[in-house]
Amino acid sequence: MPKVKTGSGAKKRFKVSAAGKLQRRRHAMQSHNLTKKSSKRKRDFGKSHPVAKVDVKAVKKLLGMK
Predict the structure, then answer these.
(1) Total domains in the fold of the chain
(2) d(Cα 20, Cα 33) in Å, to the nearest integer?
(3) For residue range 22-54, what is the model confidence (pLDDT) as tens digits?
(4) Among 1, 15, 43, 65, which residue has the least CB neighbours within 10 Å?
């Protein structure tokens, strides 16, 4: 049986936490018009958030997990 390839976009955007849960990076809207965004909002761009339950199966498939 051939190996399952990892989605190259998925490996850049998702990671598995130490507890085995999927985390997504929130990286949208941080390239321009930053002067009108609050410092708190800009700080939150880099934080990881859990993947929604309905998307876990699809993301695991993209990452080559079972």
Answers:
(1) 1
(2) 36
(3) 999 877 778 889 999 999 988 888 788 899 999
(4) 1
